[in-house]
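Continuing the batch. This is chain 6 of the set; chains 1 through 5 are on the previous pages. Same settings as before, nothing changed between runs. Recording input and output for traceability.
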Amino acid sequence: MDIIIVSIVLAFIIISLYTELMGPAFTFLIGIVILGIFGILTPKEILGGLANEQIIVIILLLLLGDIIRKSNLIDRLFDKAFRRATTYRGFMTRMIAIVAGFSAFLNNTPLVAIMIPYVHNWSKRNNFAPSKLLIPLSYAAILGGCATLIGTSTNLIVNGMVTDQLIVPGLKPLGMFDFTIVGLPMIIIGSIYLILFSNKLLPSKRDVISDFSSQTREYLVEATVKTNSKFVGKTIEDAGLRNLKGLFLAEILRKEKRISAVSPYEIVREEDVLVFAGDTKTIAEMVNADVGLELTQIGMFSRKTHTEILEIVVSHNSTLIDKTVRESGFRGKYDAAILAIHRNGERISGKIGQVKLKAGDVLLLLAGDDFAKRSADTHDFYLISKVREFRKLEWYQTLALFGGTALAITLSAAGVISLFMALIILLIIIQLLGITSPKDIAKSIDFNLGIIIALSLAFGTAMVKTGMAHMVANFIISVFKPFGPYGLLFGIFLITNIMASYITTQVAAVLIFPISVTAAINLGLPPIPFILIVSFAAAANFLTPIGYQTNLMVYGPGGYSFRDYFKIGLPLSILYMFVAVTILYYAYIV
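Output for chain 6:
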C-alpha cells in the first residue's frame, strides 16, 4: 500500500513539475504532506533535509558567490580569460573548456558558484539571456567531474564501496584515471553538443525589469578620453566607438568646440568628452571598467569603497527644477553624483553639468554610503530602483575573500576540515572585516531553493524506506539481463540515472552498486565495467535540477523550469549512456 501511495505522489510531482502546474516548492510540499498524512514519513524525516550538510553548503556557496560578485574583482580576473569572447559560441567554448578542465581536479560546486555571477554579468553586457549559458555551465562542471576519481563525490563514494570489499573481496581500489576512459571522450562529445544545441534548446529568459528600463529610458552620459587611452589617435570607426553595445555616440565636446554630427573619420584626441546616449546597464558597467574612457561626473567617488548605481525621478515640487546639474549641489547635499539624464520625448545635448533639470527627469546616480540617510526625508525626487552595487576592497579584505575561499576549498579537499565548517568560518571572517554585513547575508539567502532541496531529499527517503527504489532497480535489471552484458549495462545506467535524478546521486549509487556487481558475478563477468557504469550513471545527472548540486545552483539565477533541464538534458543523457556502455563493453568485456 505504501509503495502505491509513493508511486501516486511521484506521478503527481513529475506531472506538476513538467507542466508547471504549480511552483516546484509548493509541488514538493503537497507531495511530502500527503506522505506524512499516511505515515510513510515521520515529521523528523520530513524535516531531516533541513539539517543536510549539502543543502547548507550550496546556500553558503551561493552567498559567497554573491559577495565575490559585488567586489567586481572576479569580473576583472575572468575578463582576461574571456577577453576575446564577444560571441555566444566563443564564450560558450571557452567557458566549457575552463570549467570542465578545473572540475576534473577541483570540487565543482564552488567553481560554479564563483562562475555564476560572471556568466550573468557577461550575458547582460553582451545582450544575451543568462538562461542560455547557466545550464551549460553546470553541465560542463558535471562532465569534467566525471573524468577522474576526485572529480566528484559520487566517484569517491563508489570507490569507497569497492575498498570495503564486502561484495568482491580482493578487488583493487579504483585509480585516479580509471574514469578517464569514458570521461574524456564525453567531455569532448558533451562540449560539442552543448556548443551546437544550447542556444536552440534553452529558453531566452531575460530580466523583464532591466529590459523595460533599457527599452524605455535612454540616458545622456559623458565620458572623457583618458590620456593613455587606446582610442587616442584613432578614428571613431577604427576605435569601434560607433559600435559600443548599449551606447550611441551623439556628440564630441572638444574644449569650446562641439561636434554634433560625428563623422566616422573623426580622430579621437586626449581629453575629448564623448557624449553618448545609453541604457542603465551599459552605463553601470562603465563605472569600474578599464575601457580607456572615464565617466566625467565620477570624480572623488572613484575612491569610495562602497557605491551604488541608482535611478531617481525628479518630483513636481522639487527644489532642483530649473537648476543646472552643477547648480543643484547634488554631491554635497546628497553624497551622490549625477552620471546621466533621461528626459522622455526630448533630446538633451551639451555638457551634463549645464543641463537644467525639469520635473519628471530620470537621473542615474552614483551614490555613496550617506545617500540613504541624507535623502530619507527629501521631496526633491523619488527612488525608482537600484541598478548595481560596487564594493572596493582593501588589500587585506581582498586577501581574506579570495585567499580564504581558495584555502577553504583546499583544506576541505584534503580532508582537514569539512567544506561546511570552512565556509561558515570564512563568512564570519568576511563579516568581521566589513566586506559584507549580516543584513546583506540575510537578503541573499535563497529560501525557496533550500525548501525544494530539503523536500526532494525527504521524498528520496520515502522511496528508499518503502522499498520502492530497490524493487524498481531489481525489476529493470531483470528485464535487461536476457540481452546479455551489453543490454545489462544499459539497464543499470538507465535505472541509476533516473534514480539519481529524483533521489540523489550518492543514494542512487549506494542502492544500485551491490545489485550491479552481484549481477556481473552471477554472469561470470568482470566487475569493473559494472562498477564504473554505476558511477557514471549517478554522476552524469542532466535530467532535473534536484539531482545534482550545480544544477540546483543555476536553477534560480537562470529562471528555469524543470522542463528546461529535461529538454536539453535528455539527449545528453542518452549520448552519455551509449558512449559509456559501448566503451566499457569493448574495453573490459569483449
